[in-house]
Design a protein that fits this description.
Two copies of one chain form a homodimer. By secondary structure, chain A is α+β, with helices and mostly antiparallel strands. In chain A, the strands form two sheets. A four-stranded mixed beta sheet of chain A has the order 1-2-4-3. Chain A is globular and about 45 Å long. Chain A has helices at residues 22-34, 46-63, and strands at residues 11-16, 38-43, 70-81, 84-95, 101-103, 111-113. In chain A, helix 1 crosses helix 2. The longest helix of chain A is centred in the middle third of the chain and has 18 residues, at 46-63.
C-alpha cells in the first residue's frame, strides 16, 4: 500500500458548458474513473459549474454499485477564452480510496479494495 | 489508525444561496473543518451551487497552509421549500486524510498527519 497520494497515472480533461448534458458528462466521468484515469472538469460560469456538479453527482450513482466512491476537489483556474481572461472552476475527480485500491495500470478497471 | 471512513463525530450544516458571499462561507467551512466537524452545504439553483463551489475552493486556501486538505462529495437531495418540491445539491466536505489524521475529539483543531 503506497502512501503516495499525488501519483496520477493519467488524467482526462472534460470541458463542461451550461448546455452540456449532465448525464452524458457523468457517463464520460464514470468511464474514465473505471479505467483508472483521473478526471479534470473545467467550467466557466454558474450554469456550467452547476452542470458539472450535477454530472459528478450522477456519476457517483454509476460508480457506487461497482464499489468505486469518488470525491472532487474544486479549484480556481485562470484561463483565456477568445483573448479575454476568465476565471474557470476546475474540478479534480478521483476515486476516494486511491491509497487502498490495488489497480493494474492501464487495465479495464478491475478494482479491489484492500480494507 | 482507524479504517472507519463513515465515522462522523459531528456535522455542521450551511445553506448557501446565490447571494451568499463565497469568502464568508469559506471562513465558516474552514472553521468547522479545523474543529474536526464535517460540513454539509445545501444549495438550490445554479447560482447557489456556483457560490458553494467557490466557497469550497476558497476554503482550501485557508486550510491547505495548516496541512489540511479537503474534498467534497456532491449529491442530489429532494427538499421542500414553501410547500414546493425542489432538488437541491448537497455537498459533503471532509478533510482528505481523515484516516491518517490523529485528532483529539472536541479540540481546537490540532492536527497531525501520521504519514
Amino acid at each position: 500500500m503506497s502512501n503516495s497520494t499525488e501519483h496520477r497515472p493519467e488524467t482526462g480533461c472534460l470541458k463542461v458548458s451550461s448546455k452540456s448534458s449532465p448525464a452524458s458528462v457523468a457517463g464520460a466521468i464514470a468511464g474514465m474513473i473505471k479505467d483508472g484515469v483521473s478526471v479534470e472538469i473545467q467550467s466557466v460560469g454558474a450554469g456550467a459549474v452547476n452542470q458539472a456538479v450535477k454530472a459528478i453527482a450522477i456519476s457517483r450513482g454509476f460508480l457506487s454499485p461497482i464499489g468505486i466512491e469518488i470525491y472532487c476537489v474544486p479549484a480556481f483556474a485562470d484561463i483565456v477564452i477568445d483573448g479575454e481572461y476568465r476565471t474557470a472552476i476546475r474540478f479534480t475527480v478521483e476515486p476516494r480510496y486511491t491509497r487502498g485500491v490495488q489497480r493494474e495500470s492501464g487495465s479495464s478497471g478491475e478494482f479491489s479494495i484492500d480494507e
